[in-house]
Amino acid sequence: MVKLSLALFAAIVGFTTAFAPVQQGVVAKTSLASTASDEADGIWDPLSLYNLGSGESFDTFPNMFPSTQYLEESEIKQGRMSMLAWTGIWATHKGGLGLGMHFPGFPEEPDWTKALGVFIKEQPGWFAVIFSIICLAEGESVGHTGDNFRGKSTKTPGDLGLDPFGFKSKLSAEEQARYAKVEMTQGRAAMIAMASMFAFESIPGSVPIMDVFGAQ
């Protein structure tokens, strides 16, 4: 299995480097370090997928591809969900590096892939409340602020306007930009982490580092 993993890793590296643009005298940014708001030459996008919605890449049908507003909003949102998901698995897992945390009165399920189903079955009321809050947040992000799929939204991607303690107002413009980049970077890392978790659960040996830590 180790040999197979190494072979797959080498094949993936060779495949991705074949599409990497060649730059002379320029320090390239990694995909995790660059953000969607960077200049075009700072984004690793060899197929120009980022600009499909603007019609700059090639002529397409109107509204066939999403605007950059939608892409940025989606990436930030998925990154936040992945950070929450990874934290939830780590905090509730018992054994190994898990914290083993648990809310009294709520169901316990050692297998995180089955935990949601058990929670819905045993606590339908709580699930309905949580699901309603998610729907409200989702509606706010794509609803009354405008259609970001077509680039008509009036809000900054990722900004829900929720800052009851005024943390953002205490930051300078430079600090806000820095934290936005940090959030994007950590969100991308969390999405990769969650993808590895699903791979680990479904394909034994697909994430060798988990075997090193003795994960079950």
Task: Report on the architecture of this protein.
It is a single chain. It is built from 6 helices and no strands. The radius of gyration is 21 Å and the shape is globular. The N terminus is likely disordered. It is mostly helical and 216 residues long. Helix content is 50%, strand content 0%.
Q: What gap, in angstroms, lies between the N and C termini?
A: 17 Å
Radius of gyration from CA coordinates = 21 Å
Class of secondary structure makeup: mainly alpha
Choose one word for the global shape: globular
Tally of DSSP β-strands: 0
Q: What tags apply to this protein structure?
A:
disordered N terminus; globular; mainly alpha; 6 helices; 216 residues; 0% strand; single chain
Question: What's the short version?
Answer:
The protein has 216 residues and is an all-alpha fold.
How are the SSEs placed, and which strands pair?
Layout (H helix, E strand, L loop, with lengths): L1 H18 L48 H25 L19 H11 L1 H19 L30 H30 L5 H5 L4
